[in-house]
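Input C-alpha cells:
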C-alpha cells in the first residue's frame, strides 16, 4: 500500500535532526593595586590585566616603610574577578617620643612623626661652673633619648691673695676651684678670718 505524499514529507522532517552548539568567550577585566612608594612597598604583582571573569587573584603583601603602619585596602578585595577594580593601600603614621634627660632625670618629652619632625626642646637645667647643651640627635624614626651634655666653663685665672704683701693663697682653674695655701699659721699670733682680693677697691 502506498502512503499519501503528505505523509512522506512529514516522516522525512521527523527523521532529520540538527544539533547547534553555542561557544561563549568569557569577558576580561583589569585589577590594580596602588601603593604609595613613600609609605610602603611590595615585591608582588600589583596589576592584573585581561583577567577572565570568574578567575581568582591574590592581593599583594605590603611592607610598610619606617614611620608607617599598613592598615589595609580602601575597599574589600574581591579575589574572584567579576569586574574592573582598583584598590589603594592605606597607611597610618606612627607617633614617636623624644625624651630629654639631664643627670638621670627626665626634663621633658616631645612627640614627632616622620612627616612632622618639628619639636620644642626644653631648657637644659643650669649647673654651677658648667654650660649645658643637648647632645646631637636625629628624628628619622623610633623613640629617641636625648641627654644633656655639660661642659666646663673656660679657664679663669684669679688674682692671688696677699697678707702684708706676702702671698698667702691663690686659686685658678676652669671651674672647681683648687686653693693652695702658702701661709704658715704659726708665724702669726692670730687666726685668719677670711681671704680677700687686694685688687678689689
Amino acid at each position: 500500500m502506498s502512503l499519501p505524499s503528505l505523509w512522506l514529507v512529514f516522516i522525512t522532517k521527523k527523521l532529520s535532526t540538527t544539533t547547534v552548539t553555542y561557544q561563549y568567550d568569557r569577558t576580561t577585566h583589569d585589577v590594580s593595586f596602588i601603593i604609595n612608594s613613600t609609605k610602603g612597598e611590595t615585591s608582588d604583582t600589583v596589576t592584573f590585566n585581561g583577567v577572565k571573569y570568574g578567575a581568582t587573584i591574590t592581593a599583594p603583601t605590603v611592607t610598610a616603610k619606617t614611620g608607617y603602619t599598613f592598615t589595609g585596602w580602601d575597599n574589600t578585595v574581591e579575589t574572584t574577578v567579576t569586574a574592573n577594580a582598583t584598590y589603594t593601600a592605606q597607611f597610618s603614621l606612627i607617633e614617636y617620643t623624644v625624651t630629654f634627660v639631664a643627670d638621670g632625670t627626665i626634663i621633658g618629652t616631645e612627640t614627632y612623626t616622620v612627616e612632622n619632625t618639628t619639636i620644642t626642646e626644653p631648657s637644659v637645667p643650669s649647673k654651677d661652673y658648667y654650660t649645658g647643651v643637648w647632645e646631637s640627635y636625629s628624628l628619622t624614626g623610633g623613640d629617641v633619648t636625648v641627654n644633656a651634655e655639660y661642659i666646663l666653663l673656660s679657664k679663669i685665672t684669679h688674682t692671688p691673695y696677699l697678707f702684708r704683701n706676702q702671698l698667702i693663697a691663690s686659686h685658678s682653674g676652669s671651674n672647681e676651684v683648687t686653693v693652695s695655701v702658702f701661709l704658715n699659721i704659726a708665724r702669726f699670733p692670730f687666726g685668719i678670718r677670711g681671704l680677700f682680693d687686694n685688687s678689689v677697691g
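The first strand starts at residue 28 and ends at 34. The two ends are 164 Å apart (CA to CA).
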